[in-house]
Each structure stands twice: as C-alpha cells, then as structure tokens.
Amino acid sequence: MALVAAVGAAGWLSVAAARARRRYRKAIEERGWLLERERESATRAAVEAERSRIAAELHDIVSHNVSVMVVQAGAAREVLTTLPEEAAAAMSAVENAGRNTMTELRHLLGLLAPAQDGEDEPYDVDLSPQPSLSGLTPLIDKIAFAGLPVEMRISGEPRPLPTGIDVTAYRIIQEALTNALKHGEGSKAEVTVRYADNSLRVEVLNSGPSVLSGTAPATTGPVRERADGTGRGLVGLRERVAVYGGDLDARRRLGGGYRVRARIPLDQP
C-alpha cells in the first residue's frame, strides 16, 4: 500500500509539475504578447504625436504666409491701375512671403529627414549654423590632410543661395570626397562648382582607381550600392537634389575613377 501511495504521489507531482510548466510558459507568452502590444501602442502614439506636430508646424508656416500673400495680392489688384507703386510694393510683399514659405518648408523637410546614420530613432536637431559652400575650404583642407589631394575650381560669379540648396551642394561634395578618400587609393580629386544663370552645377572627379571596386573598371555605369554601404549617402543626396527639381548622377569613369555630378535649378540672379 505504501508503495502504491508513493507511486501515486510521484505521478501526481509529475502531473502538477507539468501543469506548472505549461502555466509558466503560457504566462511568459502572454507577457511577451502584452509587451509587444504595448510597444505597438507606444509606436502608434509616437507616430500620431509626430503627425500632430508636423500638422501644427505646417499650419503655422503655410497659414500665416499664405494669408499675407492673399491680403497683399488683393490690395495690389485694387490699386493696380490707380497706384502702381503701391501695387508693386504689395506684390513685393507677396513674393517675400512666398520665399519665406519655401524656406521654412525646406527647413521642416530637413528636420523630418532620417538620422544620417540610417537609424529610425529620434535624434537631436543641431541648431548650429548649417554647412554651406562658403565652408568648402576647411572641408577640402581636412580631406587633403587625411591623404587625398583636392583641386578646387569655382566658375561663374558666386552668389547667395537658398539655405537648402547651399547645404545640399556642400553635402554632395562632402560625400563624394569622403567616398574617394575611403575607396580611391592613391588618387586625387577635383571639385568644380559652377554658378550658372539658371542653375548651380557641382562636379567631383576622382582620378584614381574606382572607388567601388578598388581597381580600374572596364566599363562605365551608374553606381550601385555595395555591401559596405558605398552609395547609400548618394542615394539620400539624390533625393534631396530632386526636392529642388535637380538631378544627380554618380558613375565610374573610363580608365578608372569616379564622377559625381549634380545640377540644381536656381532663380535668375
């Protein structure tokens, strides 16, 4: 009898232990499910908060400036024939409001861009002055000091550029020189900035081996992203250039080397 009781107790304990393990696994699974739902809920809340913030900023930017434009355009229409100077002043205000809108919208687009390291996490916006073509000399000096000789040419009459275009042009040169420095062993680079009447043209040439393969390629062709990340920055820059109605081309050169060329439309000076 004692043996039977012992066996029964052991069996009961085994069943109880199995049930406890099942309950434990179920609790773990439920906890994981709850944590996943909480993460999804937090993500949705963050997205909604960001959408609300963007909507508020867009409202502040567009509503104010467009209201000014509407009022001034109406005033100009009223006095167009009787007070042409007043009409001209009103239309000038419309133009300024439109430019301000574009400037602020471009700034907002810059704030909405992903972090430069490709991660999706929020990042702090640097409020220090953004880089521009006026800061090319320090950039080129830094690249040259790192081991890549750079020759710079400025063509045309330099003039103030919209902030977004200025920053984008600088980033194109920075990215191309950085890639040449990293992958174009024993090479040198040439940077050309051309201020045309209707456009800004930027070109960076690497005269050494291909920055993609490390050897002189047999053919030319558009750059494709490599496993080591080459081209990712240029993809982002191509998108930024497209925002301003421009285009960017990056490709291998015959005989080796690499070329990055961008054209960004400009208003008449």
Write the layout of secondary structure elements.
Layout: H1 2-79, H2 84-112, H3 136-146, E1 150-155, H4 163-183, E2 189-195, E3 199-206, H5 232-243, E4 247-252, E5 258-265
Parallel strand pairs: 1-2
Antiparallel strand pairs: 2-3, 3-5, 4-5
Helix pairs in contact: 1-2, 3-4, 4-5
Can you describe what's shown?
The chain has 269 residues and is of the alpha+beta class. It has two domains: 1-112, no CATH class; 133-265, Histidine kinase-like ATPase, C-terminal domain (Heat Shock Protein 90), CATH 3.30.565. The protein has helices spanning 2-79, 84-112, 136-146, 163-183, 232-243; strands at residues 150-155, 189-195, 199-206, 247-252, 258-265. The chain has a five-stranded mixed β-sheet with strand order 1-2-3-5-4, covered by helices on one side. Helix 1 runs antiparallel to helix 2 and helix 3 (136-146) packs parallel to helix 4 (163-183). The protein starts with a helix and ends with a strand. It catalyses: ATP + protein L-histidine = ADP + protein N-phospho-L-histidine.
